[in-house]
Amino acid sequence: MSQYNDGSRKLQDRFDTRRLADRIEDRIVHDHIDADDRAFIEARDMFFLATSDEEGRPQCSYKGGDPGFVRVLDEQTIAFPAYDGNGMYLSFGNALVNPHVGLLFIDFEGRKRMRLNGIASIGENDPLLPGWPEAQFVVRVRATEVFPNCPRYIHEYRLVSRSRFVPKTECETPAPQWKRSVWAHDVLPEGDPANDPNREIIPRG
Question: How many CB atoms lie within 10 A of CB 147?
Answer without folding.
Answer: 17
